[in-house]
Amino acid sequence: MNKEKALRKIRRPAARKPMPEHDAPDNRDFANLPLESRIGTVIKRRRSEANLTLADLSAGAGLSSAMLSRIENGMAMASLDALERLCAAVGIGLGDLF
Question: Which of 59, 73, 89, 90 could form a disulfide with 46 if both were Cys (CB 3.0 to 4.6 A apart)?
Fold first, then answer.
């Protein structure tokens, strides 16, 4: 997929998709994870579901691939602005991160 096509795909408004029950993490275990890990897990799962690479999503959200990788792996906390851009790029709302 070329970069221009990937960006068009990311910028296209997407309908929110609720998390299927069978894919939802066990809330008791998920709630015990640090916030950075929970947010990173959701973003990584949604990126995978959308068949986007780190480079595709980072370009669409205006972040570096390295920063996106750190966010997905729970090693960094993104700003609220960055989280909004990431959510828009994968077609979810901010509330879906929690």
Answer: 90
